[in-house]
Task: inverse folding
């Protein structure tokens, strides 16, 4: 079984790639830096660059699963948000997802799996409007593509974490918007997200498609 994972050099993407490798999957990592995972096949690409992304995807194929975990968080209230940051998040979250599906879904076997990493914030959150907009659009995209691919048995789902213990939370760009602990009193662990992705790739999830699964430690309650 072959899987493509974006953003596998750190955080959630790395946890997903590590979990798949441990389960016997062959994993190709699509990211700028090589992941600290000995068995992974690394394809270096800056996903923020449309031309580089299209070139990297050309000729790739035969993946049983595609997981888009690369992400970027920039914050700012309505009167201070940076529209350039918004464009960068839209590029990475929505456009790259579309390019992955367009390039790889036709070559996937029937019954293949596509998982997109979204965010609990997709429903809206103060100070995160442009981030929320891109993640909300990702849900609409996933549901639409899921409807198109359902006749082939290919599932498309979004896993939407709350505040997760990754390097993204320590990004200096969000120093004025610290993460809020969910009601469970701790951050979500990347391995918990990876476990949910593993379930979505399993035979038990073959009828689950077009859904957003929120993992937030009670933060949505």
Result:
């Amino acid at each position: 079984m072959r899987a493509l994972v974006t953003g596998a050099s750190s955080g959630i993407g790395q946890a997903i790639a590590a979990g798949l490798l441990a389960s016997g999957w062959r994993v190709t990592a699509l990211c700028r830096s090589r992941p600290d995972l000995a068995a992974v096949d690394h394809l270096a690409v800056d996903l923020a660059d449309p031309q580089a992304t299209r070139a990297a995807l050309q000729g790739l194929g035969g993946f049983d699963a595609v997981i888009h975990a690369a992400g970027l968080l920039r914050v700012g209230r309505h009167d201070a948000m940076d529209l350039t940051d918004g464009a960068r998040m839209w590029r990475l979250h929505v456009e790259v997802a579309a390019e992955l599906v367009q390039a790889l879904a036709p070559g996937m076997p029937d019954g293949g799996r596509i998982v997109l990493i979204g965010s609990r914030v997709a429903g809206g959150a103060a100070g995160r409007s442009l981030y929320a907009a891109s993640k909300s659009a990702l849900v609409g995209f996933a549901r639409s593509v899921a409807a198109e691919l359902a006749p082939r048995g290919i599932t498309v789902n979004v896993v939407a974490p709350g505040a997760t213990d990754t390097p993204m939370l320590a990004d200096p760009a969000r120093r004025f918007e610290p993460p809020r602990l969910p009601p469970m009193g701790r951050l979500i662990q990347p391995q918990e997200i990876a476990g949910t992705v593993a379930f979505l790739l399993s035979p038990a999830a073959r009828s689950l498609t077009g859904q957003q699964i929120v993992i937030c430690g009670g933060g949505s309650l």
